[in-house]
Write a structure and sequence with these properties.
Blueprint lengths: L8 H13 L1 H9 L6 H18 L4 H38 L9
Length: 106
């Protein structure tokens, strides 16, 4: 790692921690796009993470290990978000088509 041209260790840690902390938001965004577009979105996210870690000066081995671990976590989170969104959609559909859906209030 190039000492004078790279972030300090504490800055590096903060950047990586911020990336990890942002996984739920990224997963929510990926889960909300059409299913057929998700693989491309995940590829873009992976490239972004990889570029970030490389820019911090890490060598390819540690970069690959970190990115792989983060992407596994992100993919699990996306699956959870998709399940949650599907469940919410089903609840809304059931509520809209339920027995009281044609009853007017007021």
């Amino acid at each position: 790692m190039c000492g004078w041209c790279q972030a300090s260790t504490s800055e590096e840690e903060k950047i990586l921690e911020a990336a990890v902390a942002g996984i739920p938001r990224v997963a929510e965004a990926v889960a909300s796009i059409p299913e057929e577009d998700r693989p491309r979105a995940l590829d873009a996210v992976e490239s972004s993470y990889r570029l970030t870690v490389r820019d911090l000066g890490y060598e390819e081995g540690p970069v690959q290990s970190w990115v792989s671990a983060v992407m596994l976590r992100l993919q699990r989170e996306v699956k959870e978000q998709v399940k949650m969104l599907e469940s919410l959609r089903e609840e809304v559909e059931q509520a809209e088509s339920g027995p009281d859906s044609n009853v007017r209030h007021g």
